[in-house]
Structures are given as C-alpha cells and as structure tokens.
Amino acid sequence: MVNYWPYKQGIYLNHKVAYLFAHIKQKFSRNLSNNTKDYLYTDILSNSIKHKLFSIVLVELEILVLDLVELNVSLQSLQILKDKIFYDLIQKVVAHFLIECSVDSSSIILIQSKKYAYLQVTLLEYKWLLENLLTYLIFGSMYINNYIFAFDQKYTPIKHVEILLENVMIQVSNLAVFMILENLKSLSNIITFLKKNKLCNRSYISIRSLASFRNNLFYQNLLYLYIIQPKYIYSNRYKVCLISNKGLVAKYIYAYRLEDFIQLSYLQLIIITLIELQDFIIPKCEKFLLVLVKLVLYIFINILGNGIMFFIRIIILGIDNLQK
C-alpha cells in the first residue's frame, strides 16, 4: 500500500515531517560508504565523521524548516529568498561541523564563484536540491506543479519526499566539504587539517592519494557539467543519492526540466545537439554496418566456397591425368 504525503498545511503534515526526519536519522546506523560509482567530496571523511556531518545537516535542515514555519513564510517569499536560504544553510552546516570537530571556523568563507564546475552543477539543480523539498515540508504537496514529477500532486508518495530529503542531506554535506577544501586550497594545508583534526579517511592520508582524489573530482565535475548533466536534463531525469544497506547509492527519478534546459549554456546546448545527432545517426549506422557485414560475409563465403570447389576440381583433374 502506498502512503501519500499530506496535501496541505496542518497537524498531519507536521507529524509526517517529524516522522520523516526521525526515520532518516535511523538510517545513519547503516553503512555510509560510497557505492554510487562517482567520487563524492565526503569520501575524504572517515565513516564516523561522515555520520557526524550527515547528522549536522539533518539538524540544520530541521531547524530551517521550523524557522520558516514559525516566520510564516509564504511560497513567494521562499522562492525570492531561495539563494540566501541555500547559502545560509551551507554556512551554518560548515560552522556547526567545524565546531563539533573543535576547529576554528572563522577563516572559512563561502565560495560563490561560478568558475567552479561543481558549483555550477549544484546551482543549476538547486530547484531539485532544496526548493521542492522545502515546499513539501512546509506547505505540503499542494504547491508542487502537477507536471514536474511522474504523479499527481495529490498522490505524492511519502517515499518520494524521503528520497528528496536524503539527497539534499548528502549533497549539502558534499557542498560543505567542498567549501572547506577550497578554503584550505593547497594539498599540504588540506592533509594537515584532516590529519590534525582526525577527519580523514585512511585512503587519503598521503599527498599523492589526496591529489589523485581532487583531480578525479575536478574532471568528474567538468564531465558532469558539460556532458552528463545536459543529457539528464534533456532526458527529464534527475540523479539522487540515497542511503541503503549497501551504503550510498545513486538512483534516478523523473523530473520535468524545461526550466533547467532554458538555463543551459551555449556549449551545453551544443552537447545536447550532438547527443540528438548521435541518437539519430548511430542506429542508422548500425543498420548500415550490419547490412554491409552480411554482404561482405556473403561475398566472402561464396568466393571462398567457389574457390575451394574450383581447387578441388583441379586436384581431381590432376589426379585423373596422372592415372592416365
């Protein structure tokens, strides 16, 4: 039986929100290793520290929801203030995390420059990261457009909201680690910071392994920004990270992404055009090559068969001549 998310504000919605946060907290006891096949910034943290960071993000999200409800923020105000809400959340998560780890957070500055591929990806997907989630948690499913997801707003599965919350928690955690690493800048500063504060995953305790990790993230972010993300947008797909028994896993949900499509850069649109050409040309080429291969095989088999028969006849004639 499918349980649906509350349609509008009220006590029932408040109870569901409280239950959802409690349910997500219980999942932290599971394995938090990365099984998404992608590099995540949180990979650099040990499992216990990752658990602490996820808990902090969830607490800050809960406080954010309570504050917005208490302030009686309207949907229009939420949409206007969305960028500020997003950056404030990241700032609070970073500060809270560093305080919990007994680290001075005064030198950490939020990076907003769009020169970072990771930030460009995140900002383009903000609507799916936080805006829709806050709408569900504060107002219910009433204000979610019917065409955005693969179901009617009145029949939004609770599991769907749970997926969005888990994904936001993991992505905000990644952003927090990204901000910290970019503030530290040099590899020597990063590894000193991680080892001194006992935050580091054992896989990244050397400068070489850390350099490899950052390089892999850099190229992954570029690939995602210019190839993978445009493809997802074009296909109306959104990738989410979730907590499972196997650790962190990646899944895909349907999301109508016309607004994201409009915001794509010229280069990203070129990539989409190439994808479209690929979808059109490759099947045609495959059919042509298949026919060509069959034709070549047919000719080859016939020539080879006739050649063998001709060769056998020559041998037989030669034997007959020798006998005469």
UniProtKB/TrEMBL annotation:
Keyword Nucleotidyltransferase part of the UniProt annotation: no
InterPro entries, A to Z: Uncharacterised_Ycf55_algae, UPF_Ycf55
Keywords: Chloroplast, Membrane, Plastid, Transmembrane, Transmembrane helix
Any single Pfam family the record assigns to this protein: DUF3685
Bilayer-crossing regions: 133-151, 254-275, 295-319
Organism superkingdom: Eukaryota
Keyword Plastid: yes
Protein name in UniProt: Ycf55
